[in-house]
Amino acid sequence: MEETNKSVVNDYFTSAMELTESGDPHVPTRYILPPSQRPMLGPSIGTSTINLPVIDLSFLHDPLLRLCVIHEIELACKGFGFFQVINHGISSAVVKDAQDSATRFFDLPADEKMHLVSDNFQEPVRYGTSINHSTDRVHYWRDFIKHYSHPLSNWINLWPSNPPCYKEKVGKYAEATHVLHKQLIEAISESLGLEKNYLQEEIEEGSQVMAVNCYPACPEPEIALGMPPHSDYGSLTILLQSSEGLQIKDCNNNWVCVPYIEGALIVQLGDQVEVMSNGIYKSVVHRVTVNKDYKRLSFASLHSLPMHKKISPATQLVNENKPAAYGEFSFNDFLDYISRNDITQKRFIDTLRKKNL
Ligand SMILES: O=C(O)CCC(=O)C(=O)O
Ligand SMILES: [Fe+2]
């Protein structure tokens, strides 16, 4: 095998893009999931009966209708920890430019991307090709680039310079999602009966990591996944998907496909909101399936409080009848945990839940 190939087809950094291009009709053994973890693709998934919430955010700015939107958000957060938003204020041109730039990045020859590979979570820019950092030995059919995205001026120079438009176009999308995140956190705080600016300072100083994920066509989608079940550790994730593939777990523990809605963005509650709400809202467990025919792209904008900031249940939501249900935690605690544990089978948040409650 040639040197270049060796670097991309080794145990740690197998690029899913490279595997797809190789034309092999089978996925390598390490991608094959144990039978109990395989996705059930096809009509048996039974998603048609569930209506997942879609919320029109334009009314958030209308003083007369804001409360109605906040009530819709409350219901969605209680029912699913998840909703889609339309009329969210991010233009379709900004979205399309970011998607085109990311597509061009992933289409680059492997050598152009491999110098960004790292398995250090704290690296501000990290190209990765599968989960390789825990005790979990199964690999996933995904290539990604993750970059710190807030404050943008601190980080953008480290982002990929090829394609040349990447920094500007993905940067614009990252800034727009930062603004949207602030609006959503305000609405979610209000929906819990807290002040609109309950987390204002934390959000201003908080972190944003943009994970741009590429799931190429997979020869055996029934036995592999693009991403294993997990919840996101932060406050909220704003997700843009180019086609279906995301699934969430509903309150009956069934996997439900999230429909693709043109122009919509997906909002997922993370562990920090679950803790802040004292469990009134739950972070959503999700996974990604892959398909035989085409490549799927997603932008997961992962927003979080500052690295060192400990989050605990809001005092207004703790009382005699509802004592604090979680211990406090910071982003640093989360990083420490995932460097030592298998996060794919167990949620980090479960470790914070007080056992006697
Ligand atoms: O690609 C997706 O739809 C989900 C990505 C995701 O869950 C993540 O990056 O945390
Ligand atoms: Fe996620």
UniProtKB/TrEMBL annotation:
The keyword Glycoprotein does not apply. Its main location: cytoplasm. GO terms for cellular component: cytoplasm; nucleus. It comes from the Eukaryota. SUPFAM superfamilies: Clavaminate synthase-like. It is found in: Cytoplasm; Nucleus. One of its GO terms (molecular function) is oxidoreductase activity. Pfam families: 2OG-FeII_Oxy, DIOX_N. Keywords: Cytoplasm, Iron, Metal-binding, Nucleus, Oxidoreductase. Residues 206-305 form the Fe2OG dioxygenase domain. Involved in the regulation of shoot development and salicylic acid (SA) homeostasis. Belongs to the iron/ascorbate-dependent oxidoreductase family. This is Fe2OG dioxygenase domain-containing protein.
